[in-house]
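Predict the structure of tRNA N6-adenosine threonylcarbamoyltransferase.
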Amino acid sequence: MQHEAVFILAIESSCDDTAAAVLQNDKVLSNVVANQLIHNQYGGVVPELASRAHQQNIVPVIDAALKVANINKEQLSAIAFTQGPGLMGSLLVGSSFAKSMALALNIPLIAVNHMQAHVLAHFIDEEGFDKPSFPFIALTISGGHTQIIKVNSFFDMEIIGETTDDAVGEAFDKSAKILGLPYPGGPLVDKYAQLGNPKAFTFTKPKVPGLDFSFSGLKTAILYFIQKKTFENPNFIEENLNDICASIQHTIIEILMDKLQLAVATTGIKQIAIGGGVSANSGIRKTLKEAEQKFGWKTYIPKFEYTTDNAAMIGIVGYQKFLLGKFETSDVVSKARIQF
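Done. Here is the predicted structure for tRNA N6-adenosine threonylcarbamoyltransferase.
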């Protein structure tokens, strides 16, 4: 059943991006993100600096989201916020703001699991993008997570495989660091990989049983390979950067695809949806599209702006929870670690 217009203000502050969005039912009216560039000089996210930047950004970002959506705060039906997982200091800035605003406006408060939001971003009503039907398999790939999830309904999800160590985004960023590329290095590996030969160098894929992943061994293999080659030729990275990046990316994509094929074989589900920051990777997108022809799958790739951390995905979960009346009291707590 469709309510008349439900307006959800969504707040996302799990890591280093302060984001706010306004949704009317399942349509995005605004999606504003303030990136924190301060972390680049440290080669990674500094939690203390992140929470401080959220405090500076949150009011202007929410103000901008309401202005772009062209609605005033009195029209809001509810406020949704990221409860976790994420950095505790960052989460607290978003949750305390959401609580006080919901209290001031006397409207419902909705807590959202960040990982569920990556999966459910596919249900945002966006022209030219199909929505998967249940059940489907979701591959969530980001800097902090690598999971294969069997999605039976909006709030019935089961993790059937996950990484035992590093996340795939970490594998990209750490490989980039080994190559001397600036942080965040994942997008740069992708950029150079498009110009290189993916078969130039071979890296052994870790043998992990079932649907679980492991990326720490691959990272070590890349490190030793680069050390050996640069010892023989100090200009090795410079002369072969595109090929090295293409080979690393090719190996990581093969690891992901092997597990997806196994997941399809195990569950019999041929609908595959990807989400999370690493799903912005051009090689992964291309390979998944090819899998439709190759394996007869139906693949769902979200709009680019809904892959990295954003508030629109928090808003779509907020909308689904609103329809079910799943609200929180103001004593709801943020959680750095959280399961489905």
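The radius of gyration is 21 Å.
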